[in-house]
Design brief:
CATH architecture: Orthogonal Bundle
CATH topology: 434 Repressor (Amino-terminal Domain)
Radius of gyration: 14 Å
Strand content: under 5%
Helix content: 55-70%
Distance between the termini: 8 Å
Number of helices: 6
Number of domains: 1
């Protein structure tokens, strides 16, 4: 499916892309976290401000949508650029 050709997405396609985006973003965060030998508890403790371990779990599993500010805080805690987290596949089938 080439969303740029059709221009308009059906609600079901939008929901599929939202779910895939959350899943792939969470997988990327988990991949980086594990590559640095950090647990979810370790990551949560490094994130500036109050941040619960259960939030890390929900983000990594793709169950919740997170804000750009939270992504910035996660990237900072992982000592990477936020763009590294956003380098994910979404539109590929």
């Amino acid at each position: 499916m080439d969303i740029f050709t059709y221009g308009i997405l059906k609600d079901s396609e939008i929901n599929r892309l939202k779910k895939k985006t959350r899943h792939n973003l969470g997988a990327k965060i988990k991949e980086v976290r594990e590559s640095k030998s950090l647990t979810q508890v370790d990551l949560a403790s490094r994130i500036e401000g109050r941040f619960d371990t259960s939030n890390v779990s929900r983000i990594e599993s793709g169950r919740i949508n997170t804000t750009v500010f939270t992504l910035f805080r996660i990237a900072k805690a992982l000592d990477i650029d936020i763009s590294d987290l956003l380098d994910i596949e979404v539109f590929e089938d």
